[in-house]
Specification:
Blueprint: E1 4-11, H1 17-30, E2 36-44, E3 47-51, E4 57-59, E5 67-69, E6 72-74, E7 78-81, H2 92-100, E8 103-104, H3 109-116, H4 118-127, E9 135-139, H5 146-153, E10 157-161, E11 171-173, H6 179-187, E12 192-197, E13 202-211, E14 214-217, E15 221-225, H7 232-236, E16 240-243, H8 250-266, E17 272-280, E18 283-290, H9 300-307, H10 312-324
Parallel strand pairs: 1-2, 1-7, 7-8
Antiparallel strand pairs: 2-3, 3-4, 5-6, 9-12, 10-11, 10-12, 13-14, 13-15, 13-17, 15-16, 17-18
Length: 325
């Protein structure tokens, strides 16, 4: 039987480009070469390229997502999407692949766009009864009433870009005077900003994936940040302790897994997603969902895969087979 051609898309147009390339490289290394032909594809602002092991670059034909190796034209059967941020996590790539009829491992275009927009995602999930922090929304150019914001969300609070991942542009605000600088930082990433009340409790993150019509939640990972919250340094530069499985009761573990599975279903996710929660007084409060979570060596999902006694090779094969099914 002919091997399926898997293009591993990585890079992107956001601040998360380096993390995405790390994720994509892990996937390329781990995929079983006895079953798949694996092609690293860099999706960059300056161009889209297949990058061979020897560094040879071949430009992607965006008309059908094909590329040439010597005189042979390669058209992938399936794309393993590891592009964090735009255009891989916000629906743009998904809509492109769907128009071309190319299978891919992550959420469909609408689900990706919805989950990437924190404000819209929270609005939908609150309608399903999911517990979330109190929030306040502002757009670039709005008149900012810091007193009204603090009256609604309280202190401390978190200021976040609405449509950005990997903790870029996020600040924890403990005094009203720090709110405007925090907003300026967030507006550097996005023209829409969300301000949320700070929850107190155990932060946990749980991956959910679909295989053969079954939704499976991994054991949650507990996040203990050396910094005041799980920011970029904590997430990617070793300034946090990530404990899998989380040091929470079986009852709380089940609550978080159940909530993560519900959210995956409500948002119509595909492939692997990762949902973040704060467990406050025994209630999981939803923070956000990642539709293309990090798969680099430092990322949470690979740790959860190992905790489940699976190899990354086995897990990634399941995701590809599910996309092809």
């Amino acid at each position: 039987m002919a091997k399926k051609k898997v293009a591993v898309a990585m890079g992107g147009y956001s601040s998360e480009i380096e993390i995405s390339i790390q994720s994509g490289s892990i996937v390329c290394d781990a995929l079983n070469k006895d079953i798949f032909e694996v092609y690293p594809v860099h999706i960059l602002k300056e161009g889209w390229y297949f990058i061979a092991e020897d560094g040879m670059k071949s430009e992607i034909d965006k008309g059908n997502f094909s590329f040439k190796i010597n005189d042979t034209t390669i058209t992938p059967d399936v794309v393993f999407n590891t592009v964090h941020g735009t255009p891989g996590e916000d629906g743009y790539l998904a809509s492109y692949f769907e128009l071309l009829g190319i299978r891919h491992t992550s959420a469909g275009f609408y689900a990706a766009a919805l989950s990437f927009n924190k404000r819209d995602c929270l609005s939908v999930l609150k309608g399903f009864g999911i517990h979330c922090a109190t929030s306040f929304y502002v757009n670039k150019g709005d008149d900012i009433d810091t007193t009204a914001i603090i009256n609604k969300v309280g202190l401390p609070c978190f200021v976040k870009p609405n449509r950005a991942g990997s903790s870029f542009g996020i600040s924890k605000v403990t005094k009203e005077v720090a709110l405007e600088p925090a907003l300026a930082k967030a507006f550097g990433e996005d023209r829409e900003v969300i301000i949320e009340s700070a929850l107190t409790g155990t932060e946990v993150s749980v991956g959910v994936f679909k295989t053969k019509d079954e939704l499976i939640a991994f054991n949650p990972t507990e996040i203990v940040s050396e910094n005041s919250f799980f920011d970029y340094e904590a997430k990617y530069e070793g300034k946090s302790e990530e404990i899998t499985p989380a040091r929470i009761s079986e009852e709380d573990t089940l609550k978080v897994q159940t909530e993560a599975i519900k959210i995956y279903g409500y948002l119509n996710m595909k492939g692997i997603s990762r949902s973040d929660f704060i467990l406050q007084d025994g209630i999981p409060y939803f923070i956000e969902i990642n539709s293309t979570p990090g798969l680099s060596a430092e990322s949470i999902v690979p740790k959860q895969v190992r905790d489940a006694n699976m190899t990354l090779t086995q897990f990634f094969e399941m995701l590809v087979e599910e996309a092809l099914a």
